[in-house]
Amino acid sequence: MELNWVEGFEIWVGTDGKETCISANRAGLLSLANHLQALAEEAPGCHIHLDDFNSLSDGSSELVIEKTD
To answer: How many CA atoms does the CB half-sphere of 36 hold within 13 Å?
Structure first.
């Protein structure tokens, strides 16, 4: 699956107990929308794994989005 990133994206994910917060600028939100659309076309079990080593802002929690059937 090819992920389409919008130039200038910034995405931060944080967790605090049972709450998860995703904060993003406009380019980040558009990038996430592109990723969700691409994931919707994949087979069940496919997933997107984002963390602060490959795409999220420093200090972010890991984010995994998985497609079910």
So the answer is: 7
Structure tokens at 29: 């939100």
User: Do 31 and 5 form a contact (C-beta atoms < 8 A)?
Assistant: yes
Q: How far is CA 34 from CA 16, 37, 41, 46, in A?
A: 27, 5, 11, 15
Residues 6+ apart with CB under 8 A from 15: 21, 61
Model pTM greater than 0.85? yes
pLDDT tens readout for residues 51-60: 999 899 999 9
Which amino acid is located at 36 in the chain? L
